[in-house]
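Study this one:
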Amino acid sequence: MAEASTRRRSQPDTVVVVWVIALFVITGIGILPLFLYRLDLSKLTFSSSVPIVAGIGIELTAYAPTLAALLVAGFIVRKAGIRSLLRPVIRWRVGIHWYLIALAGPSILFVAGDLIRLLADAPLPTSWFAIPSAGAAAFLLGALIAGSFGEEVGWRGLGQPRLQQQYGAFWAAVIVGSVWSLWHLWPAVAPGGIATMTWSDVGLTFLRLTSTSIIYAWLYNNTGGSLLVVMLAHAGHNIAVRILPAAGSVTHGDHVVAGLYAVAAAAVVFVAGGRWLTRSHVFPDRPPTLPHVGMHVGSSPVPPL
C-alpha cells in the first residue's frame, strides 16, 4: 500500500503538465514578433513606439498563464472546467484582515526594506515615494490587470490547487514558484533582453517568486480558495514596486526585498505548517478531475514538510 501511494505521488498531473507546456508555447508565440521586428528590449521605454503586432505579442505573454489554464480547462478537463477555474475569482466573502494583508503587506515589506538599508547604512532609493508618470501609470494599470487576472488564474487557480492535493501545499507552492520564476525570465531569450539582467537577477527572481508563491498559497488556502484576495496581493506588490522604489530593476526586485519575502514565507510555513499552509488542515474545493487524464489526488497521504 505504501509503495502504491508513493508511486501515485510520483506520477505527474497530466493537466498541470499540459498547462505548463501550453504556457511556454503561448509565451513563445507572444515574443516571436520581437524577433521578426528586431526590437531590442534593452532600448524600449514606456514612450517607445512599437508595431501593433509586437505590442499584442507582449500582452499575450502577460496573459499566458491564464490563457493556458483556460485552454486546458476547456479542452482537457472539459466538464465544468472553465466554470470551476473562474469561480474563485469572485469568492469575496472573507475576513477584512485578508484584504488588508493582501493590499498593504507588500508596501509594508518595501518600507521595512528601506528601514533595514537605513540601519545598515546601505544605499537608499533616491526617493521614498514616487508618483508614476502618465506613461508609467498606464503601464501600471495594465500590469495590475495582467499580473492579477492574467497570471493568477493559472498559478493559483490551476497549478496550486491541483498540485497541493498530490504533494501538499508547500511543495506545490515551490513547484508553481519555480515555473513562475522561469517564465518571468522570458526576456532573457528575447532580443536585447539578456542585457537587462544579471545572474544575480536570476537568483533573486527565483528567491522572491518562490517565496511569494508560498505566501500566496497561504492566502489562497486560508481564504477558502479566494483568487480575488491573491489577485489583490499580486496587484499590491506591483503597486508597491511603482510607488515605493527600492531598486533600479522593478522586474527582479532587490536582495533586501527578496530576503524579506523569504522571511515572510518561512514565517507562514512555521505558523501554518507546510502540509496545509493553513491551521484548519483543510484544502479549498478540490479541482475537477477526469479519469482519462491520469489524475491521482487526495487518496494518498502526503508526507509532512
User: Anything to note?
Assistant: The longest helix spans residues 134-167. Residues 2-293 form one domain. The chain has one domain: 2-293.
